[in-house]
Design a protein that fits this description.
The complex is a heterodimer of chains A (about 250) and B (about 375). Chain A is α/β, with parallel strands linked by helices and about 250 residues long. Helices cover about 35% and strands about 25% of the residues of chain A. Chain A has helices at about 45-50, 75-80, 95-105, 110-125, 140-150, 170-185, 195-200, 220-225, 230-240; strands spanning about 5-15, 20-30, 35-40, 60-65, 70, 80-85, 160, 190-195, 205-210, 215-220. Chain A has a 6-stranded mixed beta sheet, sandwiched between helices. A 4-stranded antiparallel beta sheet of chain A has the order 2-1-4-5, with helices on one face. Chain B has helices spanning about 1-15, 20-35, 60-70, 80-90, 105-110, 125-145, 170-200, 200-210, 215-240, 250-275, 280-295, 310-315, 320-330, 335-365, and strands at about 45-55, 75-80, 95-100, 115-120, 155-160. Chain B has a 5-stranded mixed beta sheet with strand order 2-1-3-4-5, sandwiched between helices. Chain B is elongated and about 90 Å long. The two termini of chain B are about 25 Å apart. At the A-B interface, helix 2, strand 6 and helix 3 of A face helix 1 and helix 8 of B.
Amino acid sequence: MTDEVVISTHQLTKRFGDFVAADQITFDVYKGEIFGFLGANGAGKTTAMRMLCGLSTPSSGEATIAGFDVYKETEKIKKNIGYMSQKFSLYEDLTVLENIRFFGGIYGLSDRQIKEKSEALINQLGLASHGHKLVGSLPLGWKQKLAFSVAIFHDPKIVFLDEPTGGVDPVTRRQFWDLIYAASDEGITVFVTTHYMDEAEYCNRISMMVDGKIKALDAPITLKQQFNTTSMDDVFFELARGAQRGD
Amino acid sequence: MKQFRAFVRKEFYHVFRDQKTLLLLFGLPIVQIILFGFALTNEIKDSKIVICDYAKDDASQQIIRKIEASNNFTIKKALMSHQQIEQAFKAGDVKLAIIFPNDFYDDLTHQNEAQIQIIADASDPNTATTLTNYATNIIKDYQASLINSQPTLQIRTETRMLYNPELKGTTNYVPGVMALVLLLVCVLMTSVSIVKEKEKGTMEVLLVSPFNPLLVIISKALPYLLLSLINLGIILLLSVYLLDLPVKGSLLLLVATSTLFIITALALGLLISNATATQQEAMIFSLMGMLLPTMMFTGFMFPLENMPIALQTVANIVPSKWYYIIVKSVMIKGLGFSAVWKEVLILLGMTVVLLGISIKKFNIRLA
C-alpha cells in the first residue's frame, strides 16, 4: 500500500428523480489497498460502484478512477479496471481456457499473451488438468477463484468485486481472500462490497454506507475502538440502526 | 477487430454447445415443410377479378351481371386484351380473370356450345380453386336458366391455373414456412441469448469491459444471421428436390430479400430482449407476440382477403406479411425486383425503425 491515490471521489451524488441513491460521497482509495465497501441492502453501494465503473453517469460531484475522469474518460477507465459481479460471471457452457481466452480477447490482449498467461494462471490455480473442462462442471469455489483471476487477467489497476463470495463456505472464502491478498501485493487495488463481517476484517480500510451517505470510514480495528466493541457485527449494527431505507 | 473476433467465437461456442436447441433449429423447417401440407380453405368474399369480354353480346353481359351480383367477386376492371390480363395479375391484387371469346352468343345459339376461359392466380392454390369453383357455379347457373328453352346447349369453361398449373399446395406454404422459421429462429434465439447474459450477470461484466456495447449486439446477431441463412438453404433445397418446387425468379433477389427479413427479425429480437429480464419472459414474448401474429396475419394459413378491414390493417404491420408476398412473387411467380420493390421498401422501413428503437433503448438502459 502506497500514498498514490487511484480512486478519488468528491461529493459524488446520484439522483433518480427525487430519490438520492448516493449522497455526496467523498473518499480516496490508495494503490494496492483492499477497500471494503459496506452497507445494508438499499444503502446505495451498487449505485456508487456503478458510477465508479463508468456504467452510470453521476448527477453531480467529481471522481477520478485510475487518474481518469468519470464523466469524460469512461472508455479509459474501463480499460484499467476489472469487475466481478455478485452473480457468477463466467460462461458455464465454455471451458476454462475458452473463458480465459474470451475475456482476454475482449480486453484486447494478443493471442500470444493470452496463451502464455492462461497457462501460468491455470497452473497457479491448480486447474492445469481441467483446462478443457466446461466451467459449469467445476465446484463453486473453483469457479469463483477462476472468475476473480479472469477479472484481473488484463492487469487492471483496480478490481471491483461486488459481493464476490456469496454462497461459498468459510474455508473457500478464506482461500478466495488469499487470491485477493496476492493481487493487492502486486499493486492491484481491490474495491470490494460484502455482507460478511469476517470479510470486512480482512480489509485494510472499510467504509459504511447508510441511506446513501458514508457514515464511517477507517481501518476495522479503529472503528471497533471507536464504537467500543470487539466485533465488526456490532459496528455494522450500530451504524445501520439509524437507517431509514432498506428492504 | 480482434475483440470482435473473440466475441463472435464465443457466440458460436454457445450455439454449438447447446445441441438440443440446434436440433430444434434445423429440425423445425424440415418438420414444418412436411407438416404444412394440410392448409385450410375458407369462403372468400369480394375477390378482385378482371373480365375481358370480346363478345359484348346479350349472353356475356348477362353472365357478367350475375358475377357482379355475387358477393364473392368485385369486378375491378373490364379489359380489352390478353396482354392486359397478364399485367393485371402481375400488379398483384387480381386473383381471377374471366374471358369471353368473340361470338359467344352466336356459338351458343347456333352450335349449342360456347366456351369461357377462366384464369386464376394459383400461387395461392386454395384461393384459386375456390374462386374458380365460384365462377363455374355462376356460369352453370346461367346455363341452367337457358335449358328450359334450349335444353341441348352447353357452356364449357376452360380453366387455367396461372403460375401453378398443378395446384401444388406447397407453393403456398413454402414461403409461409420460410417466413415462420426465419422469424422464429431470429427473434427467439437473439432475444433469449441476450437476455441470458442479463440473467446470468455476464452482461454487467461485458458492459464494464472496454468492448463497445453496440458490438455486443452485432456479435450476438451474427451467428443467428448465419444459422438462418443455412436454414433458408435447407428450406430451398427441400422445396426444390423434395417438393419439386423450383425457384422461378432470381435466387440472388430471394436471398437478398430474405437477408433483409432476417435482419428485421433480429431487430425484433433485440427489442424483446430490451423489454424483458428473464429467458422465460423473452420466450413467451417471442412465441405469443411473434409466432401467433405470423401464423394469423401472414396470409398463408388464413386468406387475408377474408378478414375484416380492422384485422387487415393489423396485418400490415406484421413484417412477415410483406416478406411472404415477396417470396411468393419471386420464388413462385418468377417476378423481378420491379414487382416487389414496394414490399422491399416497406420491410426496409420497418427494419430501420425497429433497429433505431432497439439501439436507442439499449443505450438508455446503459445510462
